[in-house]
Design a protein that fits this description.
two-stranded parallel ribbon
């Protein structure tokens, strides 16, 4: 399925807006498709584990998920934009609005 998605994205007009929600974006090389930059969502490790537990994940599943990904710190460092997800949904919306405004301003 990844090949199909990549092919569809590459056929889109240059000015298209594409949002990929991909936990393994960097690990799979999909970040190369991000012409306006990557937006990384960061939270601390304890919060990440807590949220996965709330979704019913056990310790082994959580450890496997975390081991399969580069750290949130590295994702944030490599991204052009970052969302800090440690407070409220309203705060995330505010951060998103700032990023969208910045991207639109730079086009």
């Amino acid at each position: 399925i990844h090949g199909e998605i990549r092919a569809r994205i590459q056929k889109l007009p240059q000015d298209s807006v594409v949002i990929l929600d991909a936990a393994l974006l960097y690990e799979t090389g999909w970040d190369s498709l991000a012409t306006d930059g990557v937006i990384a969502v960061w939270t601390d490790l304890q919060q990440q584990k807590k949220r996965l537990q709330e979704r019913g994940w056990d310790e082994q599943q959580i450890a496997g998920r975390i081991a399969a990904q580069i750290s949130a710190d590295e994702k944030l460092a490599r991204a052009k934009y970052g969302l800090i997800n440690t407070t409220t949904v309203e705060d995330l919306y505010k951060q998103c609005a700032i990023i969208v405004e910045t991207i639109e301003h730079n086009k």
